[in-house]
Amino acid sequence: MDLSLSDFGAIAIMQGFNGLSVFCVLLLMALGLAIIFGQMGVINMAHGEFLTVGAYTTFLVSSLTLRFLPELQPYYFFVAIVLSFLIAGALGWLAEWALISKLYHRPLDTLLATWGLSLVMQQAFRSIFGAREVSASMPDWLMGSWMPTDTIDIPLNGLFVMAVTLLLTVAIFVLLYRSRWGLQVRATVQNRVMARSVGINTKKVDRMTFALGCGVAGVAGAAFTTIGSTGPTSGSLYIVDTFLVVVFGGAASLFGTIASAFSIAQTQSMAEFFISGSMAKVLTLSAVILILMLRPQGLFSLKVRK
Amino acid sequence: MKSFFDKLAGSKQGAIGFLILAALILVVFPLTLDAFRLNMVGKYLTYAFVAVGLVLCWGYGGILSLGQGIFFGLGGYCMAMFLKLEASDPESTRIQSTPGIPDFMDWNQLTELPLFWEPFHSFGFTLLAVVAVPVLLAFIVGLAMFKRRVGDVYFSIVTQAIAAILTILIIGQQGLTGGVNGITDLRTLMGWDIRSHEAKTVLYFVGAFLLLACILIGRFILASKLGRLLMAMRDKEERVRFSGYDVASFKIFVFCVAAAFSGIGGALFTLQVGFMSPSFVGIVPSIEMVIFAAVGGRMSLLGAVYGALLVNYGKTVFSESFPELWLYFMGGLFIAVVMYFPNGLAGLYQSHGRKWLARLGRWRPKARRAEPVAARPAPSSTPEPTSPALETTP
Q: N or C: which end of chain B has fewer CB within 10 A?
């Protein structure tokens, strides 16, 4: 191959951008999961399905706008994001109330129960929306790409997903570290018994956290519709990677989640440049497992009293 | 020697339960089912191996492996490789560009047999590998995880990730493994046609006897001191560690036993069904195997067999008549078992069935002889009346 330095630079930038896109996808999924796992030790196997809820909501909003208010089509996306958050959050609230809250002392069993929930939700999607994949119509301002030079070509929808990821991450940080509710969450994570004894309603905090985590997944799903189509099982595609991100980052540490999503995504996309996609994935997952053996508590771990 | 047999039988009730199961799968099914259905039950029974292993490592050891499909698949693939090599002798593959290698290798432009396929020409090696390969992997994973005290949910996720890795690997390396289609078109075992009804019936009985043997091995383990330690570890791991026991070694051991059972089940599956594919290895089949054990009762070796039979039977019935309802049913089953019947069918029998049987015994004087059996205290292979949950962090 005859590559000039600038070509090589362009490839590196595009591959890096690729990695950033994967990073955003992983982080969007992992954020909600990490909050829930960090606070309650619950592994939510149905997390991917809450994401799918968001994606289908966006699809519905987009088709409704197209049919009834076509002139507002460029702006529907903002309504869709809010609705996705609310619907997925409400469903999460319901799931916590009906299912998870009964199983807090049995973490392994929540894993199985939420798996059951995910099966039911997947089949519900199939019954309602059909087995075929659907995609929301994109507003014009999300089409096309940004080309700073001749060789570098960065798609706008990728940039949009990045912006959503950034905003969401910042919002969660503000919520967790600058709000009264965030204070209660952090107290519950660090010492549940003590938090309860100073008057924090930890049950209520749990329910809100679960709903918030699911709502975040809904927003992630809305953002996903800009880069891919939605099917009944699209949420579950990433679920194992996401769990590894959360576990690798260390429970109860948002920084850890970000760092691990970043390193996993970049390793994956860099490796993809040299070997086939499937082998790159095998390599990345194996590396994560190996590192987990050396550091079972994850990259960053918070001192927590259980 | 008497104590050895006592350990195998458990108690009088345990022995009766075992005999009922043995009679069911050795006499009742073969007499009442036609060859097609019997073969299907035989397929379900191969899953029961996995479920029995899960009872040991999840129900008693508290280790929830979401990757039993790995070991089931490895055992199955070992057997499939042997059968495939036998099916691809130079005579029947002479139209290939390289005769004598499996057809999928020829399609993928391989010109010679990969080195790791070579030993699978030998049947003895294959039989060994069916158990040894899964055990070896389980040993490595267990050693790496448990020695570093990776437990609980973390372990489950790691096993799930390994199942994902193995599936991607098998599908990606099409030339070496047959890819997404798996290893198909298996015909004979040492010259014996395994596709005929007679062969399938013989294989059914082989599977049934091996399953019963596995249950006895499981009972023996649970009745020994090791079984007590497993339960103690599940309930309060730290306390067992502080008492001076090497917790990790016991966990590795029981995980390896479960892997060995799964491997045997996988090999029998390949023989019964006539092919092996990555769809029995990945995340979804692995977690389905957990539900077999959960439905039957995570604390009951016999219950696991019934669980595997019932859930798979339900799956067959549903996917034949209402395919769209099957996932609802399966999902509902996961939720219901976890929330309302954490000890599964065996737990239901313990809490309701026995009382009901006892009442039946009182009501009909002729059946009185059955009463003392029904009223006996729980034997070792049945659930503890208290603490159905796997206690971890309070």
A: N
Is residue B283 within 8 A of residue B66, CB to CB? The reply is: yes
- pLDDT score, position B304: 92
CA distances from A168 to A29, A219, B26, B93, B215 (A): 11, 9, 60, 59, 52
Q: Is the dihedral of CA A22, A28, A31, A33 positive or negative?
A: negative
Give the alpha-carbon dihedral of A280, A282, A288, A292, to 10 degrees: -170
CA-CA distance, B133 to A101, in Å (whole number)? 41
Instruction: For chain B, give every domain's residue range.
Output: 2-374
pLDDT at A13: 77
B207 backbone φψ class: left, alpha, beta (φ>0; ψ -120 to 50): alpha
B358, B375 Cβ separation under 8 angstroms? yes
| B335 contact A CB<8A | yes
Assess A264–B contact: CB distance below 8 Å, yes or no. no
Tally of CB atoms within 10 A around A130: 11
- pLDDT of A165-210, one tens digit each? 899 899 988 988 899 888 988 888 888 888 889 988 888 898 999 9
Comparing CB atoms, the residue among A106, A119, A244 nearest residue B389 is: A106
CA A63 → CA A54, A67, A156, A178, distances in Å? 14, 6, 22, 38
Which whole number is the average pLDDT over A98-126? 88
ipTM comes to 0.85
**Nearest-by-Cβ selection for A116 from B144, B335, B393:** B335
More reliable by pLDDT, B389 or A57: A57
Percent of chain A with pLDDT strictly greater than 70: 95
Q: Helices A180-190 and A5-40: crossing angle, nearest 10°?
A: 80
Number of H helices, E strands in chain A: 11, 2
* Mean per-residue pLDDT, B30-44: 88
Which of A111, A113, A117 faces B153 most closely, judged by CB atoms? Answer: A111
Please name the residue that has the structure tokens 């006892």.
B358
Report the distance separating Cα B219 and Cα A303, nearest Å. 41
Query: What are the C-alpha distances in Å from B106 to residues A133, A216, B112?
Result: 35, 49, 9
What value does the CA radius of gyration of chain A take, rounded to a whole number of Å? 20
Q: Hey, is the C-beta of A116 within 8 angstroms of any chain B C-beta?
A: yes
Q: Residue B124 has what DSSP assignment?
A: H
CA distances from B32 to A6, B27, B46 (A): 76, 9, 20
pLDDT (tens digit per residue) in B132-155: 999 999 999 999 888 888 777 888
Among A112, A190, A233, A286, the residue to mutate for chain B (most B Cβ within 10 A):
A112
Residues 6 or more apart whose Cβ sits within 8 Å of residue B282: B69, B163, B164, B166, B167
Is the pLDDT higher at B20 or at A273? Answer: B20
Task: Give the number of other Cβ atoms within 10 Å of residue A290's Cβ.
Answer: 10
**pLDDT computed for residue B180 by the predictor:** 86
- Residue ranges of the domains in chain A? 25-144+152-232
pTM score, two decimals? 0.85
Lowest mean pLDDT among A43-52, A132-141, B211-220: A132-141
Query: B-contacting residues of A 222-241, CB under 8 Å?
Result: 240
Taken in order A4, A19, A234, A146, the sign of the CA dihedral is: negative
